[in-house]
Queue: 4 jobs
Job 1
Amino acid sequence: MVILPLAIIGIVALAFGFTAWKAKAIEMEFPNTGELIDVGGFRLNSLHVPKPPGADLPAVVFIHGASGNLRDQETAFRRALDGRAEMLFVDRPGHGYSERGGSENGFPDGQADAIARLMEKRGIGKAVIAGHSFGGAIAASFALFHPEKTAGLLLLSPATHPWPGGVDWYYDIAAKPWIGWLFTRLFSLPAGLMLMEKATRAVFHPNPRPEKYLQEGAPALVLRPENFRSNAVDCVNLNAYLRRTALRYREIGAPTVIVTGDSDAIVSAEIHSHGFANAVAGSELVVIRHLGHKPDYMATDVVIAAIEKLAGLPRDLEAAAHMAEARLMPQAEDAPPELDLSIEKT
């Protein structure tokens, strides 16, 4: 009679021990490459590339998506913009190596406020605010609530509008105060390790995932318990936040470009990208055929052209998109993703 409870206790202890050990191992494999700066009661982590001599572009602030960290956007853009612009790659509150801060950071406007304060600490007055996926909701909120700091708005496969339904069940569990604490220390890390290969390939589908993405983008950082919980809370809160915020997008006056793919299985281009383009007067929507959820990696040249256009340079984004389509078509995979990671759950 006593053996079963003791066995359960032993299994739980092993799971806790494995999670603590593996989380530390992940940190050793992917150490912090940024700098923690106090932004008002908590520290935000970022990698700052100072303005180079002869820069021909404004500063650019890059905001990563769900389950991400600053390495994701740094890998995509730092080399491409080297010598041309000041760059700020940010670990969103509770992600990567940033501290979470207060409950306001469970919502895009709170995170946008934190990034605005970080820009002040870094001496950046105005910048092109670039957000990918979930980062698009934060970038849109930044442009809405901090227009004086927004030189331009660039959204990449963004999540910006409410959708029918909710989010994945494991986010609902992980976001809960007590059960979520246990869940992230017993199940989410080992399960995430088993699914990492398929999950990251599904995010890029139908395009091939870059060979070195698991190392250079460091997606494993999100599997650490506190990161996973922060990510879950963000996702659980997003839909309700967008219901009350999306109606205000028409107030955004910054020059705006949205880049999305017609084969995005993660975030509906019709709901979000098209919806945002319809809401923001003067915005330009660029839809690239054969492109999934990662224009930052698979159509980097189009994104750079969009930054140049936001800087006032003459650029034909449709022509750039057509060139990307020709390159992507032979790479597109016919098989559907093995995991359904879509934000919109019904």
Job 2
Amino acid sequence: MDKETVFTNKADEFLQMFKKGEEFTKDLLRENEKLRYRIAQLTEAVERSGDEARVKLYENRISLLEQEIHSLRERFLQVEQENKDFVSKYIEVEEENNNLANLYVASYQLHSTLDFSEVLRIVLEIIINLIGAEKFAVLLIDDKTNEMVPVSTEGMDVSEAPKVKIGLGTIGSVAKEGESYFAADLTAPEEFDPLAPIVCIPLKIKEHVIGVIVIYKLLVQKPGFSNVDYELFNLLAGHAATAIFSSRMYTQSERKLTTIQSFLDLLKEKPRK
């Protein structure tokens, strides 16, 4: 075999090996491509599975957060309501304290003088400012006639106020029984009736009634009475009654003393020659 033939055979073998190597490389590349594709599928599946797990975790966390927010919202609403109740109670207590302070000042004023006219003036101011009455009268019992006569009024003339026998009608019954009267409807009627008050408060010293406060109309800004107002009525009735009775007795005694003193002065005068 000559050298050319040997060389040709070697070249063919090399080409065959090269072709096999090329095919093997292509096979490796195809397998590698398949593996890459599979890896990509697995990676996607893993990532998808991870997303679902994370989504599930996030959903659980969101659910817990929503429950917590709902609980906090309910607590907030509860605290807000408690604050409103507290503010309401604070305002009520503050109002009561103010009324009691005003009543204390008014009571001090009532008992600071023994002038009958001054006491009546103070009583009128208390009824206007603390009770919120616009039209009313103060009636005192005349022991000689056994009837109540008006001694002071507001929003009306004294001549318009009634004279009432004890035990007759609403006003007379309050004077006899010593129990306050409050009409079911505190709105003043269109036609004024002196014998039909919306409120009637007895003026009492212990159980002895000396007169009544008769209210016919409230101020516009006073639609009704609160619990504090009823307490004010009770306190006012006692303090006003004591002040009126004391000042009345003092005024009467002063008049008597003045009369006696004038009589003594006349006796002391030297007879004219």
Job 3
Amino acid sequence: MSGLAVADAVPSDDSSMADLEPYRSELTGYCYRMLGSTFDADDAVQETLVKAWQSMGGFEGRSSLRSWLYRIATNVCLDALRARQRRAVPMDMMEPRSASLPPSHTLPEETWLEPVPNAALDPAELTERSDSIRLAFVAALQHLPPRQRAVLILREVLAWQAAEVAELLDTTVVSVNSALQRARATLAERDLATAAPVSPEDRELLSRYVAAFEAYDIDGLVSLLHEDASMSMPPFAMWLRGVDELRTWYLGFGSGCEDSRMLPCEVNGMLSIAQYKPDPEGGHMPWAIHALETSDGRISHIHHFIETDIPGAKLFVRFGLPAHL
């Protein structure tokens, strides 16, 4: 928790935290889009709820409780973003590299966009607004200045009125509309494709991917990929593009993934699976969460989010997964 502990908070009413708790999941979706990190979003939401809890006695009801909470959450996120660079995916930071080169260079975890568990989000995020929680959209949001980011999320994703956003940000409707126009222009440059909700055909594709990966059937695996498919592996500062490059990777530096086991995992409203790699000391250790982007019935990109906290398995535990098999 960022600087606030529940034990140190002085509630104005014994029931106030329970009253605030129902807002946790929707605030998590908002803070995650703002910050690009599931762990930072957790901290921001907890800080928001504790600040609201401490101040409940001074809440005068001039706005709705929900609006008041979003004001606090926005300020928490803007404060957090003042002292950090934007999070990114490798494709936004570098050119693709050859699969014949070893994956040696890593960057700090705060460099990279992180996934978020479906279970942490409000169900409406995954049904009514699934596009807005996909990794490509969240990565695009990180290109916006923080206040533009807040305006676009509140106006375009959460469908707030311009006057409501202006009140939340202590600015004018004209300023909100101007910020929204600039944010839309920036996102238009990203050429984001509209992602359809996960379909039964998508789930069948995931089943085939898992079967091929667990069997380490490389011919079967690459047959599921688009010709120009790509893959990335944060925190490694690299990504690969092209089915031949991916085949070379699987048969070369990636061959340590042979005999992996996979467990179900739900990430960002996308097709996803958790990979456990053979552990030299026995069993299987957490290795990567795979999030798949698809189009026309094939896989276009594979995000591999590598577990860097061994043996603690911080990422896997956050997703409700075992720390070891």
Job 4
Amino acid sequence: MFAIISDIHGNFEALNAVVNDIGSQGIDRVFCLGDVVGYGPQPAECIDLVRKMCEVCLCGNHDYALVYGATGFNAVAADAINYHRNILMPQLGGKKRDDAPLKRWTFLKDLLFRYMEEDILFVHGSPRNPINEYITETDVKWGLERKIHEIFSLVERICFIGHTHRPGILNSKMEFLTTTDVNDEYQFPTDHKAVINVGSIGQPRDGDPRACYAIVDNGVVRFRRVPYDVEAVCRKIQETGLLDESLAERLKVGK
């Protein structure tokens, strides 16, 4: 049994609530699919907790952008990355040595792009492009069969992803299932492959503001929703004076 978290985005309140929920389930293996940073007010605290609790952490597009530059990001996301970079980048010189910034920076720089365990693949975005490609329900709606075929050609059996902030399941039968469709529980298929999005901890976008993650136990995926103090995070975003107000407002509605 293990837990999978993703898209924390500097939201320490949400992460801490999920960590407590994971602990209450008796789980000691945790995988993170990336985007520890970006958007939220507490990137350092989130990195420290992920480093402490996660067996594996992958690189998301925001983690990559923080180290190498926010190319192709909209203004709000790019400003947040720059804000986080100023917080996290190690400073040279100074009389007092502090190893924490260097350890956080090295952690981000060394994140894996993909991880495989038995017949399960873990990536942030997609097997074709682990950092940046989105897999969404619209791929089915628009009939993007070639894209879906190419994605599943790179999946042995099951692939877990994040990136879209919207939990759900895409299978090789060209079906997309929401968590409502499966009543928050999904059995690994035996006659086809599946790509499973575990949702977002720090910035859900499916209309439910609660943090979302997944537990995997004997081939069954259970989607968990965890409430947290959204207003506290919104206040911290506003108090930075540098993060866009929209980042606080969207947390309240899960969009």
